[in-house]
Amino acid sequence: MIVALHGFTATPSMWRDIDLDGPVILGHGTEAPANGGENFAHEVERLASLLPHSPIHIVGYSLGARLGMAIALAHPERVRALSLIGVNPGIESKTECTRRVASDAAWSSLLRDKGIEAFVDAWQALPLWDTQSSLPFERRESLRLGRLSHDPEQLARAMDALGTGSMPTMWNAIPTLKAPVQIIAGALDGKYAAIGARICQMLPNASLHLIPGTGHNPVFEDPQSVRNVLNEVS
After folding, report:
1. What is residue 220's predicted lDDT score, i.e. its pLDDT?
2. What is the pTM of this model?
3. Cβ contact 211:186 at 8 Å
4. 173 contact partners, CB below 8 Å, separation of at least 6
């Protein structure tokens, strides 16, 4: 069985083009409302409680990939394989972490002060998404509308609890991962391709897959190629 964990500002519908499904992450939609007191560890345990009892294949994208890695570290008996797309195991530098906390807080403030549309406009203007500019307008608009469907306060609480600045780093724990790991990144996503290569150097049972012509969201940009990689897991 495969359980897929979506990214920040997304929903489980992001997986529909590759026929996967999974739970809603904290603060996204209405199924997992955030009360403001949660943190990354709480969400790891909440998601783990929703998993089947038999070992599963976890697929995660970005935020979902971070949570998927954390679940595999906390509950190795529940995970038979990991496919992590655009994953960042955490920030190692205290200085960089402090900067990221401030950046995450600014995004949360934008959501609370200006609302969801202003946030989505700013979020989609990030250079991280430049590789999507050549995709058909209708496809890009569907992504925008999905982001606009979120409640701004709930999304702000998700950022507060699950942002990269507030999560614990997992770099030191990576060598203890037992399950086979696929690391997937867009070939044009230099930062995350490099992170993926570093993870693979730490794990004898890991493989790196770079999706040609895609950036930080290969699931959206080339779902068929991502599906082909996922199908390699037995």
Report:
1. 98
2. 0.97
3. yes
4. 73
Which strands, in side-by-side order, build the sheet including 79-85? 2-5, 56-61, 79-85, 181-186, 206-211
Q: For residue 11, how many C-alpha atoms fall within 13 Å in the half-sphere facing its CB?
A: 16
**Distance between CA atoms of residues 19 and 218, nearest Å:** 15
* Total residue length of the chain: 234
* Total structural domains within the chain: 1
Question: What tens digit of pLDDT does each residue of 40-63 get?
Answer: 999 999 999 999 889 999 999 999
Residue type, 190: G
What DSSP string describes 35-62? Answer: -S---HHHHHHHHHHHS-SS-EEEEEET
Q: Are 81 and 180 in contact (CB under 8 A)?
A: yes
Range of the domain at 98: 2-230
**CATH number, residue 209:** 3.40.50.1820
Q: Which of 160, 158, 163, 156 is nearest to 26 (CA)?
A: 158
Q: Cβ(112)–Cβ(27) under 8 Å?
A: no
Tell me the per-residue pLDDT of 9-18, one tens digit each, with 9 for 90 and over: 999 999 999 9
